[in-house]
Amino acid sequence: MDEAKKIEEFEAKIAAGEKIEPKDWMPDRYRHQLIRMISQHAHSEIVGMLPEANWITRAPNLKRKMTLLAKVQDEAGHGLYLYTAAETLGISRAELVDQLLTGKAKYSSVFNYPTLTWADMGVIGWLVDGAAIINQTMLAKSSYGPYSRSLIRICKEENFHKKQGYEIVTHMAQGTSEQKEMLQDAVNRFWWPSLMMFGPSDKNSPNSGELMKWKVKLKSNDELRQRYVNMTVPQAHFLGLTLPDDDLKHNKETENWEFGEIDWKEFYAVIKGNGPCNKERMRARQNAHEEGRWVREAALAYAHKKKKAAS
Ligand code: BYC
User: Fold this and answer.
1) CA 135 to CA 223: how far, in whole Å?
2) CA–CA separation, 284 vs 68, rounded Å?
3) Which residue's CA is minimally distant from atom 25 of ligand 1?
4) Phi and psi of 187, rounded to 5°?
5) Atom of ligand 1 nearest to the CA of 37
6) 263 alpha carbon to ligand 1 midpoint, in Å?
7) For the chain, what percent of residues have pLDDT higher than 90?
8) Ligand 1 proximity of 128 Cβ (cutoff 6 Å)
9) Does the pLDDT at position 292 exceed 80?
10) Distance CA 144, CA 83 (A)
11) What is the pLDDT of residues 42-62, one digit of tens each?
12) pTM of this prediction?
């Protein structure tokens, strides 16, 4: 079959709402885009463990500590499902990890900001996981079977993460004036980075066209960002919190909460490696990889010995 016919059949399948599976024929660009996006998503889950892990030893009580531990462990699980989904496209785990550790692959910009107080744990669950759910609920319907299925489970867990964050935030919003101040400060620091999680504006998003044509993404960056703002602003108001945006206003006609201009200079600086914590995050992952070398070698040696004994 010639290439044009293959593409026609591939696109007809997508148009009919069928999933593309690993052994199906797919254009090289589709494979390339998926590897890029799924692996960046996996790296985000793994690097995303660091800002919250920073507070495990300082959680205010045992219940909070257990919940935070469970959440951070869930993120490792998400990374695992996603690396496995990326591997179905013909790239090895070692190669993917190498791309992260050498700075060739990106991970979500939001994890390059520091977590300065306990309130950040609530705000990350509420805002960061809240943003992630909006994006990932859409991606759970994406055209690539393994990615879509991994996201169904991830979204269920992310909902729990968002609830644990919102519960912390609700508690602090009713607390002492010091707790309320701490919470407001965390919201002020994480509001704009959470909006940046949706990526550049549509007119500056080079990958969206291809991804939407092949139904990997079903909504654009700006559409999802607006949906997130519309959902989150009333929650902030309900909690008695303000959002750090003087231009935020409700448009009665469109029913949208209109918001001010994102600082794109900051966004591009962060994704190029110059955010407040990029170097620290990379160093932490590189050290963890080095310190885990003996475990990987021991596991490989054990597997080799077992195989030899069986033959
Ligand atoms: N940060 O053409 P565009 C979590 C890059 S973790 C960094 O619009 P696309 C959690 C983009 O990669 C969940 N880079 O790209 C974990 C591209 O660069 P390259 C994280 C960004 O792919 C632990 C360039 O900018 N979620 O929930 O159409 C604790 C141009 O962008 C960002 C995912 O990973 C960014 N924010 O759209 C708590 C979701 N935005 O690759 C919570 C999966 C853009 O061409 N990914 N870039 O060099 C996606 O949905 C899409 O890839 C994006 C970007 C919406 C992020």
Assistant:
1) 10
2) 19
3) 199
4) -65, -45
5) 52
6) 17
7) 99
8) yes
9) yes
10) 14
11) 999 999 999 999 999 999 999
12) 0.96
> What is the C-alpha separation between 28 and 43, in angstroms, rounded?
22
Tell me what the mean pLDDT of segment 254-262 comes to: 98
What pLDDT sits at residue 274?
97
3-class DSSP assignment, residue 105: coil
Q: Whose CA is nearest to atom 11 of ligand 1?
A: 199
Q: Whose CA is nearest to atom 53 of ligand 1?
A: 199
Mean pLDDT (the chain, rounded): 97
Contact 128, 187 (CB under 8 A): no
Q: Is the pLDDT of residue 311 over 90?
A: no
Handedness of CA 21, 27, 33, 39 (dihedral sign): positive
Cβ 196 under 6 angstroms from ligand 1? yes
Predicted pLDDT at 163: 95
Which residues are within 8 A (CB) of 233 and not within 5 positions of it... i.e. 6 or more apart?
A: 243, 248, 250, 257
Q: Helices 293-310 and 278-291 meet at what angle, rounded to 10?
A: 40
Cα 200 to middle of ligand 1, angstroms = 9
Give the atom of ligand 1 at the shortest distance from the alpha carbon of 158.
27
DSSP 3-state percent helix, strand, coil across the chain (nearest 5): 70, 5, 25
